[in-house]
Design goal:
CATH topology: Metal Binding Protein, Guanine Nucleotide Exchange Factor, Chain A
Helix content: 10-25%
Shape: globular
Oligomer: single chain
Structural class: mainly beta
Largest sheet: 7 strands, mixed
């Protein structure tokens, strides 16, 4: 990776009721997970630390869903149902932002890596190292 500075990117849900900003490099590697919820929602993970995420508005328009271990806090817009970000089980001190909900302006290189979330327990060490 080039010597880069992080910059803020805007994002939000489909209807605009939830808006956020995420700070990351212009070259990013996303994670494409095949677990049951990511597969169904089409989530494309951009994992960031809490300090690199700001909810601009819409906190009152977010609902949370949990399942299995209830460690991951899946957040959805109450109006349009889109899942723009959530607190992942793998990185409970940060956020996983749905790259599909981020304004693509300002990114130079975007690549993705597959993650076998169907076998989460066996594979989580590789994801946590990022």
């Amino acid at each position: 990776m080039k010597n880069q500075k992080k910059i803020w990117h805007k994002g939000g849900c489909h209807c605009g009721a939830v808006k956020f900003e995420v700070r990351t490099y212009t070259d990013v590697t996303l994670t494409k997970c095949n677990c049951s919820i990511c597969e169904m929602t089409g989530f494309l993970h951009l994992i960031v630390k809490a300090k690199d995420f700001r909810l601009i508005f819409g906190a009152d328009n977010i609902t949370t869903y949990t399942f299995n271990t209830h460690a991951a806090k899946h957040t959805f817009c109450k109006t349009c149902g889109v899942k723009p970000f959530y607190t992942p089980r793998s990185h409970p001190d940060g956020y996983s932002v749905n790259f599909r909900c981020v304004d693509k302006a300002g990114f130079e290189t975007v690549t993705s890596e597959d993650f076998d979330g169907k076998n989460w327990v066996s594979n989580i060490a590789s994801l946590r190292s990022k």
